[in-house]
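Tip: read the tokens left to right.
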């Protein structure tokens, strides 16, 4: 530095001046360090695919920043020693600005890295909070078992499901659930765990005993989770309390059995006496017909009519029971073809009644079972004939209702018949309920069968009616996609 001070100030910028070379050496050494270090980091990470953590990269950048500051301090010392003119100082500062920009860039990157690390930490905390909220409020037991089959985690709902505290579950010898599962279902439970260990998910239901002693039902889904090497890391089980659903299913099954037993009784125990009554009445009429007094003949006719109505009622009960307990197919049905069959079958009846049947021909295919769809439509058409008004000619229109729903079709059955009293609209879809129970024959089971059939086909029916004016039934089917 003493040599530099002896040189004239106006010769500082000369490339061959020893003092200038010394200053440039002070500047160049940190630059070379910066360039070589950055090049080495880039070469090493890209060649060997090495991941450098944010902390390590931050340390390196701080070192580089220190080198840049060191170079700046050396440059300032040189400027003081040389007593440089403004022009000479400007040249030196232009080089200094290079280092200042580099330092600023390094500082900016460090700040960005710190912000990214802070954001990652916040995201991690948010995920942990969400996970905690989910497991704490999920109405299902979440069970995690390690590769050895030991329970390592239970969600809080497990206490509600079993009645046992979490500490008791962790402290149990072996698998805790094997101690509370009904003996009849232990095999299926152990099979599910083995299947999960083999890498397949498994769903099953099992009976278990709550700590209070109640027998409960649960449904479980066990899923294996593997590590990067393809080895089983742990298994995840979601267990839901389905006691209410199972009990309801059993009640439904019991009611269906009772209905089948009732149907059997009606079929065999009631139909036989009806046949006997009708047969005996027929024999009496054949043997004593010509000699029978008028009042006796009238009484016999009443007996025959009553027997016929009872036979019709029994047949209706059997049909309703068959619809209730039977299964229905779910397949595409050509609705245009079904409507054509209905129109052809009722042609003579409309002709004799002086009525008109108008059917919209533009109907899409629907989902259901052809024979069931025919039953629904023919029943509604038959009701329009049965409950027509004597004051005017019957007109029945079967049209497609406008709708924005592309998955459903609503068909309107609009007639100008007797209409339905307001107090009967809510009950006409129940069995043995009739809107007009006077001289019009019927069992009151037709619309109940229609409702039950539509329920099985995922459809719906509703009605709008004005007594003395007519009715419109709206029947909804699923459109075949």
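Filled-in amino acids:
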């Amino acid at each position: 530095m003493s040599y530099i001070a002896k040189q004239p100030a106006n010769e500082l910028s000369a490339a061959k001046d020893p003092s200038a070379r010394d200053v440039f050496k002070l500047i160049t050494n940190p630059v070379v360090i910066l360039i070589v270090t950055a090049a080495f980091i880039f070469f090493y990470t890209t060649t060997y695919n090495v991941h450098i953590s944010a902390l390590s990269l931050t340390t390196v950048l701080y070192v580089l920043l220190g080198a840049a500051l060191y170079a700046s301090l050396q440059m300032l010392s040189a400027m003081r020693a040389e007593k440089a003119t403004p022009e000479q100082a400007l040249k030196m500062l232009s080089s200094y600005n290079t280092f200042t920009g580099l330092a600023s860039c390094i500082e900016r990157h460090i700040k960005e890295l710190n912000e990214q690390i802070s954001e990652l930490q916040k995201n991690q905390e948010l995920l942990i909070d969400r996970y905690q909220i989910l497991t704490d409020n999920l109405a299902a037991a979440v069970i995690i078992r390690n590769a050895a089959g030991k329970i390592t985690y239970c969600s809080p709902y497990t206490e509600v499901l079993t009645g046992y505290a979490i500490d008791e579950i962790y402290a149990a010898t072996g698998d805790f659930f094997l101690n509370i599962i009904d003996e009849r279902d232990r095999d299926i439970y152990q099979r599910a765990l083995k299947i999960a260990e083999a890498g397949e998910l498994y769903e099953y239901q099992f009976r278990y005993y709550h700590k209070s002693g109640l027998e409960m039902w649960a449904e479980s889904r066990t899923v294996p989770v593997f590590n990067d090497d393809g080895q089983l890391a742990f298994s995840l089980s979601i267990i839901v309390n389905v006691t209410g659903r199972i009990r309801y299913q059993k009640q439904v099954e019991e009611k269906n059995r009772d209905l089948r037993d009732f149907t059997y009784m009606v079929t065999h125990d009631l139909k036989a006496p009806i046949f006997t009554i009708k047969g005996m009445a027929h024999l009496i009429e054949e043997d004593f017909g010509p000699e029978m007094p008028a009042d006796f003949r009238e009484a016999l006719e009443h007996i025959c009519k009553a027997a016929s109505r009872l036979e019709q009622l029994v047949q209706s009960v059997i049909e309703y029971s068959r619809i209730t307990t039977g299964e229905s197919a779910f397949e595409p049905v050509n609705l245009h073809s079904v409507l054509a069959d209905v129109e052809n079958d009722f042609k003579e009846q409309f002709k004799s009644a002086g009525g008109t049947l108008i059917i919209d021909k533009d109907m899409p295919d629907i989902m259901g079972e052809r024979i069931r769809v025919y039953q629904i439509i023919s029943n509604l058409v038959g009701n329009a004939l049965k409950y027509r008004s004597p004051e005017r000619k019957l007109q029945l229109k079967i049209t497609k209702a406008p709708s924005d729903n592309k998955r459903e079709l609503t068909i309107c059955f609009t007639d100008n018949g007797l209409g339905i009293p307001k107090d009967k609209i809510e009950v006409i879809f129940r069995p043995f309920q009739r809107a007009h129970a006077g001289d019009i024959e019927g069992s009151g089971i037709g619309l109940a069968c229609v409702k039950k059939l539509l329920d099985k086909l995922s459809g719906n029916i509703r009605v709008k009616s004005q007594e003395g004016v007519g009715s419109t039934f709206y029947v909804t089917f699923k459109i075949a996609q």
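The mean pLDDT is 78. The two ends are 92 Å apart (CA to CA).
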